[in-house]
Amino acid sequence: MKKNDEHLVWKTVSRKWLNDFRIFNIYQVQREAANGISGTFYEVDAPNWVTIIPHITDKKLGLCFLMVRQYRHGSNTVTLEFPAGMVEKGEAAEFCAGRELLEETGYKAGYLEFIGEVSPNPAFMNNTVSTYFADGLELIREQELDKHELIDVVPVPVKEVLASMGQGEYNNGIMMISLGFYLRRMNLVNMSLDG
After folding, report:
1. What's the pTM?
2. What domain range is 78 assigned to?
3. How far apart are CA 160 and CA 162, in angstroms?
4. Are 80 and 168 contained in the same domain?
5. CA-to-CA separations, 43 to 24, 73, 150, 187, in angstroms, rounded
6. What SS3 state is found at 30?
7. CA distance 165 to 75
């Protein structure tokens, strides 16, 4: 927080747990602003997430992202996404990234690099999503999916993902955020801005 932002900060007066929905909790929060106004707000208390952007070279397709195709209950659609998951309590985000990649795809990363972190929706959620770039992939085992996961693993050409993200089966907003970190990491954003 910047020093000049003090007038924007709301003080928490009380925080009351309302319900546990397995993958998040809901809290009712009473807050008061510096100018005296107060209000009731609702906070989604969710675990932190990770997204992994794995590079792989396919003999036929060339440079690809290793992606996962799965059904999403919120949108009632099948999506094409980067591997991702929830950070377990007490787990480091980097460890989670390696674990989720291995569980969802069967691939282990020879190289894993943190490339960015954001709050997915700070208006009412209190978690973060960290993005990791993975390279030097090696298939070492079968998938080890959770009880309710049904996932196909597919290599998708990087060019196709860049052209399609945000449309059709690429409609996951967190994937778009992670792709932005990837573009910055690969210096593709700066190249576009410079020329």
Report:
1. 0.90
2. 49-194
3. 5
4. yes
5. 10, 21, 30, 36
6. strand
7. 16
